[in-house]
């Protein structure tokens, strides 16, 4: 593997608790020795799990990869509500669970809980929590929340594709250890922009109580899965101790372990098209090409395909490959006669670079 082939990709980090996504990016920049690093979707500080970091040329893929669905495992505690809807907030409501109420929820193989969890599935308008990074008038909502200011902002269209109850645990409250409670462990597959904290709060309401998220772990972002992620502390130990501060050796190691996803692999959820040499030269020069192919996205779930079908701009995006490497991202415009006019949207290799490599290159 050459130095040039290590230049760009998506590094999958298993984010630890009590750190911001931006702080992870900052630490990754120092370790990788690369300035152009950005994450593909914020995780709350209290949350853990998959945080994809795009670096160098791959940062230009962010606009396409941010469309991915997410899968989470969340633990919801009944009986308390907080202002942030998670365990980091201040308690704003308390409805202690009586023995009769807990017996009611646990009766009949927990049918009441299962029904409430299932009711979360589907499309809805979701209002982001006040303690979030959603911006209003150029400032994040948490700025107004901390100042005690009320602002008007719009609800978002979100989709919960599936919600499954994994476990129910009878225990004591995280925030008020003197109270007995039930913790519900859920697995949720949802569209981008869905706040799991809001779903936790809503679940409490649907059970006739209050609730907040006590644990949250992101298992997948599209095809980026937790199994391929590396812990931040492990990454730093590799860099500082085992590899003596050698960023290139670290990148090579992470690529070999599958912790870094190549750009062409990152686009697997979109249709991929192998260019001829003539077509590659045209795309690299910024010119459109015409094809008769009908493209599909086999890497997407049926639920994702249904959602994407609502947006032509998303449905028609495709990865353009030359010799197995991602040369560009294009968009297919269907012509009246049924042909596809592929226009380059984001080009990663210039005509000069393509020619200088003698018809071969590596990203």
Description:
The protein is α+β, with helices and mostly antiparallel strands. It has 12 helices and 20 strands. Strands 1, 2, 3, 4, 7, 10, 11, 12, 13, 14 and 15 form an 11-stranded mixed β-sheet that branches. It has a 5-stranded mixed β-sheet with strand order 16-18-19-20-17. The longest helix is centred in the first third of the chain and has 20 residues, at 99-118. The chain is globular. Mean pLDDT is 89; it is low at 297-315 and 359-363.
Q: Write down the overall geometry.
A: globular
CA radius of gyration is 23 Å
**Total domain count:** 3
The CATH class of the largest domain is Alpha Beta
Which sheet architecture does the biggest sheet show? Answer: 11 strands, mixed
Counted by DSSP, the helix tally is 12
Low-confidence stretches: 297-315, 359-363
How far the N terminus sits from the C terminus, by CA atoms, comes to 11 Å
Helix content: 25-40%
What class do helices, strands and sheet pairing give? alpha+beta
Descriptive key words:
alpha+beta; Alpha-Beta Plaits; Pseudouridine synthase; Archaeosine Trna-guanine Transglycosylase, Chain: A, domain 4; eleven-stranded mixed beta sheet; five-stranded mixed beta sheet
In short:
This protein has 363 residues and is of the alpha+beta class.
Write the layout of secondary structure elements.
Elements: E1 9-15, H1 21-32, E2 37-39, E3 48-55, H2 62-65, E4 70-78, E5 80-82, E6 91-94, H3 99-118, E7 122-126, E8 135-136, E9 139-140, H4 141-146, E10 156-172, E11 180-190, H5 196-206, E12 211-221, E13 224-225, E14 230-231, H6 232-242, H7 247-257, E15 260-261, H8 263-266, E16 272-274, H9 277-284, E17 289-291, H10 302-308, H11 312-315, E18 317-322, E19 325-334, E20 340-347, H12 351-356
């Amino acid at each position: 593997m050459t130095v040039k082939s290590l230049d760009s990709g998506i590094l999958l980090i298993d984010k630890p608790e009590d750190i911001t996504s931006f702080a992870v990016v900052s630490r990754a920049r120092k370790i990788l020795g690369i300035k152009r690093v950005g994450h593909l979707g914020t995780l709350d500080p209290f949350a853990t799990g998959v945080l994809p970091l795009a670096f160098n040329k791959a940062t230009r893929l962010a606009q396409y990869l941010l469309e991915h669905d997410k899968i989470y495992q969340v633990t919801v505690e009944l009986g308390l509500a907080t202002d942030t809807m998670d365990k980091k907030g201040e308690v704003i409501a308390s409805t202690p669970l009586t023995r009769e109420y807990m017996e009611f929820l646990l009766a009949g193989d927990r049918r009441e809980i299962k029904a409430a969890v299932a009711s979360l599935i589907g499309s809805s308008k979701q209002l982001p929590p006040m303690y979030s990074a959603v911006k209003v008038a150029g400032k994040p909502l948490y700025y107004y929340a901390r100042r005690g200011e009320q602002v008007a902002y719009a609800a978002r269209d979100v989709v919960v594709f599936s919600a499954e109850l994994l476990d129910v645990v009878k225990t004591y409250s995280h925030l008020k250890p003197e109270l007995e409670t039930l913790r519900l462990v859920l697995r949720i597959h949802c569209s981008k922009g869905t706040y799991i904290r809001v779903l936790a709060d809503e679940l409490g309401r649907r059970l006739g109580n209050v609730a907040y998220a006590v644990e949250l772990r992101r298992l997948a972002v599209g095809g980026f899965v937790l199994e391929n992620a590396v812990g931040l502390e492990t990454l730093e130990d590799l860099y500082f101790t085992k590899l003596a501060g050698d960023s290139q050796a670290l990148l090579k190691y992470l690529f070999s372990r599958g912790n870094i996803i190549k750009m062409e692999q990152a686009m697997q959820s979109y249709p991929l098209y192998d260019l001829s040499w003539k077509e590659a030269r045209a795309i690299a020069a910024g010119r459109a090409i015409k094809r008769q192919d009908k493209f599909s996205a086999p890497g997407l779930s049926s639920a994702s395909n249904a959602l994407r079908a609502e947006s032509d701009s998303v449905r028609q995006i495709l990865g353009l490959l030359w010799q197995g490497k991602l040369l560009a991202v294009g968009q297919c415009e269907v012509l009246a006669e049924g042909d596809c006019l592929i226009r380059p949207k984001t080009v990663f290799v210039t005509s000069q670079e393509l020619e200088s490599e003698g018809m071969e290159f590596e990203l």
